[in-house]
């Protein structure tokens, strides 16, 4: 039972990481004017931002200001992977 819950958590974490990567890539495309700010991409980007902002905001508040580069998504991905590793070791050792 615990292994199944862990695998579900692992899958949800993978989806979350993909959303973070998609947000990052779309943000870069907008920042460097590679794509125009069309309505579909803007609404998709804003939707992802609304979903991720409550999780990323506390991390942004803890990190020092680095100018235009936002390291909070990277920190979040690393923290989620650390938590998964620790939980996986605990569950598989039982």
Structural description of this entry:
This protein has about 90 residues and is an all-alpha fold. The chain has one domain. The chain is built from three helices and no strands. The protein has helices at about 1-30, 40-60, 70-94. Helix 1 (about 1-30) crosses helix 2, helix 1 (about 1-30) runs antiparallel to helix 3 (about 70-94) and helix 2 (about 40-60) packs across helix 3. The model has no long low-confidence stretch (mean pLDDT about 90).
Characteristic terms for this protein:
transmembrane, 94 residues, mainly alpha, YggT family protein, elongated
Write the topology of this structure:
Layout: H1 2-31, H2 39-62, H3 72-93
